[in-house]
Design a protein that fits this description.
There is one protein chain. 0% of the residues lie in helices and 50% in strands. The protein has 141 residues and is an all-beta fold. The strands form two sheets. The protein has a five-stranded antiparallel β-sheet, with no helix packed on it.
Length: 141
């Protein structure tokens, strides 16, 4: 399980089309986020305020699922991931459970997910700020 309290402050009203942020758990870093074959995370991308969820276990790849919740620029939000049931991973935004779950039941114990936070920009000159208040991770033994 993971929880992070973050604040995204964008130069404009939202990210531009060439920007993305992920917050969650992943096996290893990959500059091409969708090429990471083992992950569960929140994703904010493009010129909108949508908070998306994604998951990949090497078999099932679920991308860009809209939570129906938008982020508010320059306000803290708490993002939570509950992996108690790998076939139905739950996501929470500010304590509110997202309606959709993600199936990553093909994850193996040696996939070794770790906290993963990355903000990317392909081009442009805008300057964004990401404040990370805390990251909490809990794992079974």
């Amino acid at each position: 399980d993971m929880e992070a309290r973050i604040r995204l402050n964008t130069a404009g009203a939202a990210f531009t089309a060439d920007q993305r942020l992920v917050v969650g758990l992943a096996a290893a870093r990959n500059a091409t986020l969708d090429s990471n074959a083992s992950h569960v995370w929140f994703r904010i991308e493009g010129a909108n305020l949508n908070i998306l969820i994604e998951g990949d276990d090497g078999v099932t790849d679920t991308n860009d699922t809209d939570t129906g919740i938008d982020y508010v620029d320059n306000e803290f939000l708490v993002l939570g991931i509950d992996m108690t049931t790998l076939s139905a991973v739950k996501f929470y935004v500010d304590g509110v459970e997202v309606a959709t779950t993600i199936d990553v039941s093909a994850l193996l114990s040696d996939d070794g997910l770790q906290p993963y936070i990355e903000m990317q920009r392909d081009a442009g000159t805008e300057v964004e700020t990401l404040d990370i208040d805390y990251v909490f991770v809990r794992s079974g033994r």
